[in-house]
């Protein structure tokens, strides 16, 4: 795509990857939709944890601030979503076009990793994917944590869509930076993380799978423990509505509103406190 610099993207990707634990590994998992890049670390005999990043310029590396702590208690598998920015390679024009396709893709990823089931975590759009997978493939999912998931319990705010529109219509590094500065209220972000978001502008992506929020009756039937972390300063949606609706619909949910955190600052914000909360949830009763 015009304006996209694949070399600059790879440099920014590798720089953020260097923040991962030294024993990290890069895996390639074949799926019906192409080869999926999986960045992994942690004890090989530990229970598996599959991590899904948000949309936009997010990649598997979005978890860099949490992965060292998570890898103490889990074998972490962080994926680059097929058809989105990252090092996954789609199979021609065959990419997921519906929720059922995303389920087939994640089934193939877990099969390729040799995992019959896994804990699952997702941020933003990755939370939307993770929640749908938990609903459609409950036998393959143990515990689920969601970091300010979008389109799961509340819709987007009109102001968020308005500010995102220029970036979506013609993505440039400058527009990406301006949008992230607006959503975060001007809070400074990690320079290496921001560089990767900017380098992903114009990445040749497939149309993401979208759809309605999960049906209330499906959420009420979810028989799994869920940790929902809501960003109090999120401009993406109404944080209170997200928390209230989730607590009303999910039978086994623990909801925590994180103060002084915006949507796009997750999952990098307050790394020690956030990692501790996630590991306690994963290892809890």
Briefly characterize the structure.
By secondary structure, the chain is α/β, with parallel strands linked by helices.
Describe this structure as you would to a colleague.
It contains 10 helices and 9 strands. By secondary structure, the protein is α/β, with parallel strands linked by helices. Strands 1, 2, 3, 4, 5, 6, 7, 8 and 9 form a 9-stranded mixed β-sheet that branches. Strand 8 (226-231), helix 9 (239-249) and strand 9 form a beta-alpha-beta unit. Helix 3 (99-113) packs across helix 4, helix 5 (158-169) packs antiparallel against helix 6 (173-183) and helix 6 (173-183) crosses helix 7 (191-199). It starts with 5 loop residues before the first helix and ends with a helix.
Topology:
Blueprint: H1 6-17, E1 25-31, E2 34-41, E3 48-52, H2 67-73, E4 75-79, E5 89-90, H3 99-113, E6 118-123, H4 125-136, E7 141-147, H5 158-169, H6 173-183, H7 191-199, H8 216-220, E8 226-231, H9 239-249, E9 253-258, H10 271-283
Q: What is the ordering of alpha helices and beta strands?
A: HEEEHEEHEHEHHHHEHEH
Quantity of strands, as a count? 9
Give the quaternary arrangement of the chains: single chain
Overall form: globular
How many helices?
10
Cα-to-Cα separation, first versus last residue: 49 Å
What helical percentage do the residues reach?
A: 25-40%
Structural class: alpha/beta
* Largest sheet properties: 9 strands, mixed
Mean of all residue-level pLDDT scores? 94
Query: Whole-number radius of gyration?
Result: 17 Å
Given as residue ranges, the uncertain stretches (5+ residues, pLDDT < 50) are none
Strand content: 15-25%
